Amino acid sequence: MARNICDVETIKKIWDYYQTVDPKFNNYVVDEMVDDSKYTPYDFKTFNYMIDLLNYNSFPAVVRNDEYAKSKSVPLYRGVESPEHNAQTLADFDYHRGIGVRGCGLYASMDFNEVYTCYANDPYSILEFKLDSGSYLASYNGLRKILNELISVDDFDKIDSPQGDLHAIYDFIKSLPNNDRAFFIALLDKDPSKLAMLLGYDAVDIDFHNSNHTIVLNRGKMVVSESEYKRKTDLSRYYKGGFVDENKPDENFLLE
């Protein structure tokens, strides 16, 4: 199935929504990062709106263990800092949006050891999953190249919209008043995940500096084994008082 690239009408809905967002949200990251200049401000509100509008908010597929094992997709690992406070976040596959310098989304790594040592306090805080074999992954470098091309255009009225994936984006930019064009491009430039979603991608491969990271955008493309899902839901119930201490899941569950 081909990527579902947004048409001009859909892009306009997103732009119209963006106009309603309180400007303070467009410069908000998270409390501990607000004053750290290396972090790009993210527009969470518009990202969330796009997730719902484009039906990227489906629950991941939970499959039999043998079916999961047969999948040729590379396992990905996602960590959170505190299992006690974030167990439900893992069980719900919440996006925990905006933590990362490359755009909004659910960040994951192919390197379990990296997640274990850098992004999680213990094995309870790690979720393993795969992406559906039909998922479309955008290259982060490719997205940046497109954005640089958009930024470099002096006058959109003097050029023809390219055929192919970018046709609707160029047509939409041309439909905007001159003063708004730079703001629309900046909306995408601040958060390349939004550009990836407009182009119908399910995730972004951060393909530079030997990175092992992937940004998941379409939650419905995630695949989780039955046993992994049970461990996370059991863990969530445990921290909500559903289990006594001796029934706490074994901390070596990811090493089986």
How many DSSP E strands? 8
Order of helices and strands: HHEHEHEHEEHHHHEEEH
The helix-and-strand class reads alpha/beta
Strand content: 5-15%
Overall pLDDT level: 79
Q: Identify low-pLDDT runs.
A: 27-41, 242-256
Radius of gyration: 20 Å
Counting H and I runs of at least 4 residues, what is the number of helices? 10
- What's the shape? elongated
**Helix coverage percent of residues?**
40-55%
What would you note in describing this structure?
With 256 residues, the chain is of the alpha/beta class. The protein has one domain. It has 10 helices and 8 strands. It has helices spanning 8-20, 44-53, 65-70, 83-92, 112-119, 140-152, 167-175, 178-190, 192-198, 226-239; strands spanning 61-63, 76-79, 106-109, 126-131, 137-139, 203-205, 213-216, 222-225. The strands form 2 sheets. Strands 1-8-4-2 form a 4-stranded mixed sheet. The model is unreliable at 27-41 and 242-256 (pLDDT under 50).
Concise account of the structure shown:
The chain is of the alpha/beta class and 256 residues long. The chain has one domain (1-240).
SSE layout and pairing:
Layout: H1 8-20, H2 44-53, E1 61-63, H3 65-70, E2 76-79, H4 83-92, E3 106-109, H5 112-119, E4 126-131, E5 137-139, H6 140-152, H7 167-175, H8 178-190, H9 192-198, E6 203-205, E7 213-216, E8 222-225, H10 226-239
Parallel strand pairs: 1-8, 5-6
Antiparallel strand pairs: 2-4, 3-7, 4-8, 6-7
